[in-house]
Design a protein that fits this description.
CATH topology: TIM Barrel
Strand order of the largest sheet: 1-2-3-4-5
Largest sheet: 5 strands, parallel
Number of helices: 15
Bound molecules: hypoxanthine, zinc ion
Order of helices and strands: EHHHHEHHEHEHEEHEHEHHEHHH
Helix content: 40-55%
Shape: globular
Structural class: alpha/beta
CATH class: Alpha Beta
Strand content: 5-15%
Number of domains: 1
Oligomer: single chain
């Protein structure tokens, strides 16, 4: 059922959708070597024990992305897959510094992704926006330079975000960059409390003024923070298969999904880096449905949350939520 219902995806790194087959074809097309001879060899290497072990492989594989058309093809492949799983709207992360630091022009990255999203809007009726992430293990000066490069594409980028190695790179490091981004009209989100303690989440809320928390698992160690996130209806994007993949939890059942739903938190389910964590959004939803024996009411709540948590216009949000509410009424669940 979850696969066929409309949903929005809010935590998806476009570089994290680089399937091994595509990586090897870009590698041939661009003459860039990879450590893997076959897709099977790549998949066999995708055994992670923490965030850094994933990031090492993730940044290595994306070295095959060179030309604007690579970014176009990558994005279009994701959109087609997401659409087949009921995604009608996606807010997509990209990591410009992971490309510009290797000499790929910012414009090639953003134009390739944007062009694919515009074609998807026109040809597939797929709505989307872009979130430009700063790599938090790079300097704040590099983040500011990246923001400056983005200004001429402001119309294409809805929000800034922050990812990569969290521990040791607290949000406050980027407060000036976020302040500038907000002054320029961008929305703001951040990966926070993914591997770092609740203080990082407080700091992301108070000093970066984010309006959505990515992952946020460690906030559950701080009841005051949980109360704030619930009462201010600050959305939280959970990524079940990824968080198992980097061993934050031993199983999906250990994740705070049911707890979040019971508290009335605006939590939603996402796929993060599906090419590396063995599943797109439907598989992530199936995993939580099974782990918590969720009923229709809770599944619909997660899907409605995915729209409430989005940056869609209020009337579009209301229309999507209305559709799900009507479905729930038909099923007699809500
Ligand atoms: N966390 C941190 N960095 C990342 C992630 C993530 O979920 N995905 C891609 N880069
Ligand atoms: Zn992520």
């Amino acid at each position: 059922m979850a696969r066929s219902l409309p949903k929005s995806e809010l935590h998806l790194h476009v570089e994290g959708t680089l399937e091994p087959e595509m990586m090897l074809s870009f590698s041939r097309r661009n003459g860039v070597k990879t450590p893997y001879a076959t897709p099977e060899e790549a998949r066999a290497a995708y055994n992670f024990t923490d965030l850094q072990s994933f990031l090492d492989i993730y940044y290595g594989a994306m070295k095959t992305l060179i030309e604007e058309r690579d970014f176009y093809d990558l994005t279009m492949a994701y959109v087609k897959r997401a659409k087949s799983e009921g995604v009608v709207h996606a807010e997509i992360f990209f990591d410009p510094q992971a490309h510009t630091s290797r000499g790929v022009p910012f414009d090639a990255v953003v134009k390739g992704i944007h062009r694919a999203l515009e074609d998807a809007r026109g040809n597939l009726g797929f709505s989307s926006s872009l979130i430009m992430c700063f790599l938090r293990d790079m300097s704040s000066e590099s983040a500011m330079e990246t923001l400056e490069q983005a200004l001429k594409h402001k119309a294409w980028i809805k929000s800034v975000g922050m990812d990569s190695k969290e521990l040791g790179n607290p949000p406050g490091k980027f407060s000036a960059v976020y302040a500038r981004a907000k002054a320029e009209g961008f929305m703001a989100v951040a990966h926070a409390g993914e591997e770092a303690p609740p203080e990082y989440v407080w700091e992301a809320l108070d000093s970066l003024k984010i309006s959505r928390i990515d992952h946020g698992y460690h906030m559950f160690e701080d009841p005051d923070l949980v109360r704030r996130v619930v009462s201010e209806r600050i959305p939280v994007t959970f990524c079940p298969l990824a968080s198992i993949g980097v061993e934050y939890f031993r199983s999906v059942a250990e994740m705070p999904v049911k707890k979040a739903l019971d508290l009335g938190m605006v939590a939603c389910i996402n796929s993060d880096d599906p090419a590396y964590f063995k599943g797109y959004i439907a598989k992530n939803l199936d995993a939580v449905i099974e782990a918590f024996s969720l009923g229709e009411r809770e599944i619909l709540r997660l899907l409605r949350n995915s729209f409430e948590a989005s940056f869609l216009e209020e009337d579009t949000k209301a229309a999507q939520i209305g559709k799900l509410t009507a479905l729930a009424a038909e099923m007699g669940t809500d």
